[in-house]
Structures are given as structure tokens and as C-alpha cells.
Amino acid sequence: MTVLYGIKNCDSVKKARKWLSEQGYAHDFYDLRSGDLNLKTVVRLIEMTNSDVLLNRRGTTWRNLDSAIKESVNQENIAELLLANPTLIKRPVLDYDDRITVGFKPELYSTIFNH
């Protein structure tokens, strides 16, 4: 099963969803703002990528975090931080064939689905 994690109004997520649909790849979309994200999923995403790849340090949510929280982020607390602030997760996150890909580039998606 292919799952795309993201936020509906994010341009990169829109492009990824459009690409998947145009190429005929069925997928489930998981809106990170839905409130249904769980710790098990967040830990799996971190383990399969890397917390540095998954954590969006350029977005508004990161900029609005208290500086003490930003400075204290580490491997032990990152999952809880992402669970509490799911918009800190870089988007989109593609979960396909037991692999996780962060971000959207058409050529990368073509490679992934035509392996």
C-alpha cells in the first residue's frame, strides 16, 4: 500500500498527489493535521529516514517554537516533538514498498515506481 503523508494545502504535496494520480498509482493520503498521527508511525518514519531529513527547520512552525525547545531537540525527544507538532515533518512523505521518501521530485518518484 502506498501512503502519502502531508498537508492538503502544501504545494509540494499537491504536486505529489497529482503526479501519483496522473501516473495511475493508487495511494492513501494522510493529512498530518488530522490529529490521528500516532507515536508508532512517527518513530517508524524517523527510523526509516533520519530525524535530520524528517525535521523541517525552515518552516513557520519551527520558527515559532521556543528557542529552548529548538536547542533541546535530540534523538530521545524528536518523536514526541513531531507528534505534538506534525507540521514540523517535511512534506510530502511517501511510504511505498517499505521505503520512505521525503520531498517531491518527479524524476525521483519515477525511479521509485519503476524500479
What is the spatial order of strands in the main beta sheet? Answer: 2-1-3-4
Structural class, by secondary structure, is alpha+beta
Helices, by number, come to 7
Cα shape: globular
CATH hierarchy: architecture: 3-Layer(aba) Sandwich
Strand content: 5-15%
The total beta strand count reads: 4
Helix content: 40-55%
Q: What is the CATH level 1 assignment?
A: Alpha Beta
Residue-averaged pLDDT, rounded? 95
Q: N- to C-terminal separation?
A: 16 Å
Please mark out the parts with pLDDT under 50 across 5 or more consecutive residues, or reply none.
Answer: none
- What is the alpha-carbon Rg in Å? 14 Å
- The CATH topology is Glutaredoxin
- How would you spell out the order of helices and strands? EHEHHHHHEEH
Main sheet? Answer: 4 strands, mixed
What count of structural domains? 1
CATH superfamily: Glutaredoxin
Structural notes for this entry:
Helix content is 45%, strand content 14%. It is of the alpha+beta class. The chain has a single domain (3-113), classed as Glutaredoxin (3-Layer(aba) Sandwich). The protein has a four-stranded mixed sheet, covered by helices on one side. Helix 1 (11-22) links the parallel strand 1 (3-6) and strand 2. The mean pLDDT is 95.
